[in-house]
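Board notes, transcribed. Complex of a protein with uridine-diphosphate-N-acetylglucosamine.
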Amino acid sequence: MSNSGPLRGSVSTGGSKNAVLPLLAATLLTDETCVLDGVPDLKDVEVMCRLLRSFGAEVEQDAAGRRIAVTAGRIATCEAPPDLAKAMRASVVAMGPLLARCGEATIPLPGGCAIGDRPIDLHVKGFLALGADVEILTDESGAGCVRATAGRPAGTEMYLDFASVGATENIMMAAVLTPGTTVIENPAQEPEIVDLANFLNKMGARIRGAGTDAIRIEGVQALHGAEHSVIPDRIEAATFMLAAAITRGDVLVENMLPNHVVPVIAKLRECGVRIREEDAGLRVDGTAGGFRATDIKTLPYPGFPTDIQPQFMAFLATANGPSNIVETVFENRFLHIEELNRMGAGILAEGRRAIVRGGAHLHGAAVRATDLRAGAALVLAGLVADGETTVADVYHIDRGYEDLVGKLEGLGADIRRMKNGGPQDSVDRRVFAE
Ligand code: UD1
């Protein structure tokens, strides 16, 4: 029988991946020690720590890896190693701090065409507006890198054509040490931007308006060390909410901020999932089942997050009736559809729109995580599919989920990580009939 494993119990969300990466980059802005608490144990965090070390920073972690102290006493080089920069797009947020602190920064771009598929034009526009000189360099193999040098730094007013998260972070970090006042109009308003501004202000920066439609930064001469706790991961929290909903379970998600996931709560409620705030967290009760379809359009915060679109799509495949999903943030974020369809999801992609037939009876299959959130969507689908699902390439999941398998197991999921006896790096899931 399908849908036979309702998850039950409570699960705790870790620190936010998307908050901690720019926070770590921000530690390059001072020669004093900065301490971050509540750091999640993730591959991307490991890559960012290696990147900081490559610039000459000392990075110390406690045994559990939750607390990281960074001292960038001396910056030995302002050039990021290509292997690290290519491993993680977020490496680009080291540019703003390096430019501000050392007057130069060079970051290799992800392979292929210089700024083709994964543009950083808004970051570059911001640096140029702050008086930097920026060159895009390409070697014979076609690999590109972007080099910024300080030129004549001066605060200015600028408008972002799109509220890019990374560009807002990079410009904020470059502007904190830039003389004069910088105003960013149409910045990203994500909670991670607010967390970064709070940390920078603890370091002595003067930033106002983070989380609104304009950020104002008064440049200061130097920043000092600070301590900060990372905010909880709203995407991980939302993934657990969907795990409860898709399995028709009843789960208390702890250590999360419900006001960071307002659209996810609203859309789940629209489908008929019961959600209520309790002292310890957010209770997501999907035991009534019989869920309705809904339409979703991803948007910059406070709109529906693109990072939860694949997981919500997996859920909607099991709801009654057709749903429309429009992805407006990323051009090519439907790679999970083919994999979900292998499990019988019945989803049609047309450009940036996906039509989910609904009412799917998912069956187990050998599928592949094409990226981080796609991997999470496949795990969720596997939780309600008949038979066995094997998700390959789970290194994508490790980038952004701390012990996803262990946490789902704690809620009663039948899931295990395959070390031996199966393809390396795979999550194996069996659903037993009721
Ligand atoms: C961040 C998040 C990522 C999330 C995304 C959107 C981190 C580490 N990652 O990524 O999980 O999915 O926000 O919420 O925080 N763009 C340009 N030019 C630019 C920059 C971006 O055209 O200079 C485009 C991108 O191609 C994309 C869109 O803007 O289509 C959103 O990108 P952006 O907000 O910058 O995302 P990231 O900061 O890369």
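The radius of gyration is 22 Å. The longest strand covers residues 133-138.
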